[in-house]
Each structure stands twice: as structure tokens, then as C-alpha cells.
């Protein structure tokens, strides 16, 4: 299986993250992508391809131009205001507030973000922009007739909506890839999101559309981030009614205790809908030892996950999302891809 990778991911390198009230080293760190790259190479996947450059209009098919302009200039504006420290928002336009776009950089960070756990640093734009090229290079391989590809994206993307960043995500790599497949020949594309967290950004981007089906298996938002989206009664709206399927599962869920059944039903829905290609938002933060998650999947379970995805019989683009136990990340990703291929 072709693997698309760029070392420029390492330009996203936050200094700290507030977890449980304590400033800690970020869990979303460069070592993640490096360990995955080493593992897929050691497992014989390849070739390892560098991304091609795609134009910005592939991004603005999914994100607003204002949001892209904000992201690409936020660091410089923040440094001008505060100095060279991670740019982080501290308040949000929640209930009772208006949704005006402020002038000051602090207000813009608040307007365009959904949390304070996603630092904008000197290299964030370059890293996020390159991750889009990684995903699109994978999409082009599928478009050119390959049955499968792995886009080793970092930073991840599925929490980013048309004009929102957060959850370690800036640009929605999987959504941009799905849109690219739509714009270049595929009439119906599915996104299957198996990251531990609900893919709120991807859902929001396609929520009113009948040409992209979104299915997500994730921790119950009553218990888990992002808390305010990802419930089972979110089924799409307007033309997109019936094209969104959420499978919220309780903390402690394992492969045999709910996960496999949910994944099977998500695949059944995608198949029944008539998808021509599938983009898999591949998070492996469902792992039992993941430092920020509460599911119980084991390393062998990822082989089973890959097998189930392969049974869809569709051209498949895997796009890397979350997964934070660096010691097991490589094995879990390799098992997913190996299970898919065998
Ligand atoms: N800093 C992905 O797996 N946790 N994102 C917030 C406060 C956010 C996970 C903790 C988890 C986001 C792509
Ligand atoms: Zn996640």
C-alpha cells in the first residue's frame, strides 16, 4: 500500500497543553508521526511518497476563505501582539454572546476555535497545509485507480469544521480528500471515522449534503470530548437527511462489548447507501492504553478492524487522525492496514 508522508509535520510542535488542570507536554506531538512512519516502513509498506502540491482552492471547497486567511496569518499576528509563545484562545462566543468577527488576534482565535488545547505555533500553518497535500496526494492515487492508500497526516483534521479549528486539528484533511474525490469523478463518497473522538468537523461540513455519507464510531459525547456533537439522533439535514450515522459508545467499550457491532452497522450503512469510495479517518486512540481515552481495543483488534473495512470492497483512502500511545501507535496502525490488505 502506498504511504504518503512529509517530514514537515514536525513543524507543528506545541509547548504545552492543559490536561486536567495541569500544564503538560502536548500528547499530539511529532513523535507520533515518526513512530508510525518507522512502523509502516518496517512492515514493508510503501513506497513512501512525498506529497504533491495542490492549490488552495481544494481547501476552500471545504473551509471558508476567511478561515484560511485567519489560520495562515494567525501566528504572525499573535507574535506581534504577545511574542513568540503558543497562540491560545481563552474565551468563546457561547450562549448570550454575539457571533461578530473581532479585529484583535485574541478575539479572532476565540471566534475560530473550539478549544484551548490546539496551539498555533510558528510552523502550524506550514504543517497543516502540508498535511492537506498529503491527504490529497493519497486521494489522487485513488482517483488514478489505486484500490487503497495511506495518508500519514499530521496534524490531524477531523475536528476542524468549515471555519473552526480545535482538537489538535486545523484543516480537515479527510473532508478535503473526500471533496476532492467528489470533484474528480466519484458521485458518492463515504467517510468512516473510527477515531475515539467524534469527527464533529467532518460531520458539520457534510451535514446537509446527499453526496457524502458520514459514519462515526466514537466515545459518547455525554462523557467525552467534543461533548456537544456526535449523538445518535444527528442523522443529517435537508438533502443530507439520512446521510449521517453516529455510534456513540460508553467509556470502557471493547471490541466484543459493542465496538465491532457498531463498526459493522456503520459499514452496512455505507454499503447500503452505495458509496463508490471510502475515506477512513483512522484514529487509533480507541486503544486500551491510550493516555487520553477510555476504550479497550487491543492491538490484535486493529487487524479485525482492517478486515471489516476491507469487506466494504471499496477504494479506500486511510487518513491518519488521533492516537497518543506512542509505544503502540505503530503496531496499531500497521495491524489496521495489514488486516485491510489480507
Ligand atoms: N487539552 C484527536 O484525536 N482533549 N483529537 C482536550 C484539553 C482534546 C483529540 C484536552 C482531544 C482532541 C484528533
Ligand atoms: Zn481522537
From TrEMBL:
Molecular function GO terms recorded: histone deacetylase activity; hydrolase activity; metal ion binding
Gene3D superfamilies given in the database record: Histone deacetylase domain
Entry keyword set: Hydrolase, Metal-binding, Zinc
Keyword DNA repair: no
Pfam families to which the protein is assigned, alphabetical: Hist_deacetyl (PF00850)
GO biological process terms on file: epigenetic regulation of gene expression
Cofactor: Zn(2+)
Residues in Histone deacetylase domain copies: 27-336
Record's keyword annotation contains Zinc: yes
Family statement drawn from the similarity comment of this UniProt entry: Belongs to the histone deacetylase family.
PANTHER family xref list: HISTONE DEACETYLASE 8, HISTONE DEACETYLASE HDAC1-RELATED
Protein name: Acetoin utilization deacetylase AcuC
Lineage: Bacteria, Pseudomonadati, Pseudomonadota, Alphaproteobacteria, Rhodospirillales
Amino acid at each position: 500500500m502506498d504511504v504518503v508522508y512529509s517530514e514537515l509535520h514536525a513543524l507543528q510542535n506545541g509547548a504545552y497543553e492543559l490536561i486536567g488542570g495541569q500544564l503538560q507536554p502536548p500528547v499530539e506531538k511529532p513523535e507520533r508521526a515518526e513512530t508510525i512512519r518507522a512502523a509502516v516502513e518496517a512492515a514493508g509498506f510503501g513506497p513512501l511518497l512525498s506529497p504533491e502540491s495542490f492549490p488552495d482552492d481544494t481547501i476552500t471547497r471545504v473551509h471558508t476563505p476567511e478561515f484560511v486567511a485567519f489560520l495562515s496569518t494567525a501566528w504572525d499576528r499573535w507574535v506581534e501582539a504577545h511574542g513568540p509563545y503558543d497562540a491560545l484562545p481563552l474565551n468563546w462566543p457561547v450562549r448570550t454572546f454575539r457571533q461578530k468577527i473581532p479585529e484583535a488576534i485574541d478575539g479572532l482565535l476565540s471566534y475560530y476555535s473550539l478549544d484551548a488545547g490546539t496551539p498555533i505555533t510558528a510552523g502550524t500553518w506550514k504543517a497543516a497545509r502540508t498535511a492537506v497535500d498529503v491527504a490529497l496526494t493519497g486521494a489522487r492515487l485513488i482517483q488514478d485507480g489505486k484500490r487503497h492508500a495511506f495518508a500519514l497526516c499530521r496534524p490531524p483534521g477531523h475536528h476542524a469544521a468549515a471555519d473552526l479549528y480545535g482538537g489538535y486539528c486545523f484543516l480537515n484533511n479527510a473532508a478535503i480528500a473526500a471533496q476532492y474525490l467528489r470533484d474528480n469523478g466519484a458521485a458518492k463518497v463515504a467517510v468512516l471515522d473510527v477515531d475515539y473522538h467524534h469527527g464533529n468537523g467532518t460531520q458539520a461540513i457534510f451535514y446537509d449534503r446527499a453526496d457524502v455519507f458520514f459514519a462515526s464510531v466514537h466515545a459518547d459525547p455525554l462523557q467525552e470530548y467534543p461533548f456537544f456533537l456526535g449523538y445518535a439522533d444527528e442523522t443529517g439535514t435537508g438533502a443530507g437527511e439520512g446521510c449521517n450515522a453516529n455510534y456513540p459508545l460508553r467509556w470502557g467499550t471493547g471490541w466484543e462489548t459493542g465496538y465491532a457491532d457498531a463498526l459493522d452497522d456503520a459499514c452496512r450503512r455505507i454499503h447500503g447507501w452505495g458509496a463508490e469510495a471510502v475515506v477512513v479517518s483512522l484514529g487509533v486512540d480507541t486503544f486500551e492504553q491510550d493516555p487520553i481515552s477510555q476504550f479497550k481495543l487491543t492491538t490484535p483488534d486493529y487487524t479485525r478492524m482492517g478486515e471489516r473495512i476491507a469487506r466494504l470492497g471499496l477504494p479506500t483512502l486511510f487518513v491518519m487522525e488521533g492516537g497518543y500511545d506512542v509505544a503502540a501507535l505503530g503496531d496499531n496502525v500497521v495491524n489496521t492496514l495489514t488486516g485491510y490488505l489480507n
